[in-house]
Amino acid sequence: MANTPYPQSYYAASANPVPPRPALQGEVETDVCIIGAGYTGLSSALFLLENGFKVSIVEAAKVGFGASGRNGGQIVNSYSRDIDVIERTVGPKEAQLLGHMAFEGGRIIRERVAKYNIQCDLKDGGVFAALTSKQMGHLESQKRLWERFGHNQLELMDQKRIREVVACDSYIGGMLDMSGGHIHPLNLALGEAAAVESLGGIIYEQTPAVRIERGANPVVHTPQGKVRAKFVIVAGNAYLGNLVPELAAKSMPCGTQVITTEPLGEELARTLLPQDYCVEDCNYLLDYYRLTSDKRLIFGGGVVYGARDPANIEAIIRPKMLKAFPQLKNVKIDYAWTGNFLLTLSRLPQVGRIGDNIYYSQGCSGHGVTYTHLAGKVLAEALRGQAERFDAFAGLPHYPFPGGQMLRVPFSAIGAWYYSLRDRLGF
């Protein structure tokens, strides 16, 4: 069987060493078979193992191969649509539950890092940067909204204050969230995988799920084996393909592009981001950036609908980086890569159950680092019979893309063009 390596990213080049994990050969039995060894799958596995379940994970490529090992590495609270939108959609009672969960993912990451001694360059502090007074007004209301749900580690920043934390002249203000932060995302996934194995969980790499045999005892079929289980958790997200057709209809893989500079040196790095916070702007199609532990700048942005790999990533992202930091015009780009995330029409995650024993979570819509860790806990609770929090997510309404899978790419691209035009015109 073909061996799928990691993409040539900065994260793969600086990953902590890991043991080889063989593909599944033959037949195994387990309590829970998880499809996908990204954050959703690994988080689910850890919570289940800690509660006495027997767990096997099948992964089509390698641990953290998808979005979990390629993202911007930013710990950002809440969901891609904020709690006020959820409140208008489902009413105050369910929104209350979802609102209190909106800040749990970041806490789970920090607990995992501490408990299992995961080496992933965890740093505290994330900045939302406003380019217009309208965006600043949105941050002011976002602070009030988050504080309603007990989230108090927030500071509004005026133009002078934001200059102290990021050397970019474009911003008129912002908001600092000290419970935000950043990590080396692939090393977080690899550390979580080691924790899974330390508790007796088994991870099979290079083992794609090719078919789920549904029934009282579901069976996950792979090219050279099968896993018989009491429960299946589908955690493939943007890399699931058409394994579960009813999930594919309501979501769309999208690509985001990331570049990493050569090492900048301590002095230059410190002038850009003196406190080593990560930053994202408030545009609909946002830019995001941060420093690495070896003082490179990681800069990402843009969306490719339908997840095609653009020919020249550096040509797309470098101009965005230079707009923020013209002082980097002579700096070399060492790595450029793309990775897919899964977009839903509502931009809210899709959580649910198919039949009695196949559970899923997908569609973080670009807000995956924290949400996936929460999702693992919520899925594990549901398998243990505590479904209140699971049901709150499962009750969110979801819709297929207009025109089905064929038209979802142009439809979304038109929507994004409209919103990015609004960003540029300052509406």
Automatic annotation (TrEMBL):
Ranges for domain FAD dependent oxidoreductase: 31-381
Residue stretches spanning the membrane: none
Q: Which Pfam family is one of this chain's hits?
A: DAO
Q: Name one GO cellular component term.
A: cytoplasm
Show the GO MF annotations: oxidoreductase activity
- Indicate whether Aminoacyl-tRNA synthetase appears among the record's keywords: no
The answer to whether the entry has keyword Cytoplasm is no
Q: Give the range the annotation lists for the signal sequence.
A: none
UniProt keyword terms in alphabetical order: Oxidoreductase
The protein's superkingdom reads Bacteria
Listed name of the protein: Gamma-glutamylputrescine oxidoreductase
The organism that produces this protein has a lineage beginning with: Bacteria, Pseudomonadati, Pseudomonadota, Gammaproteobacteria, Pseudomonadales
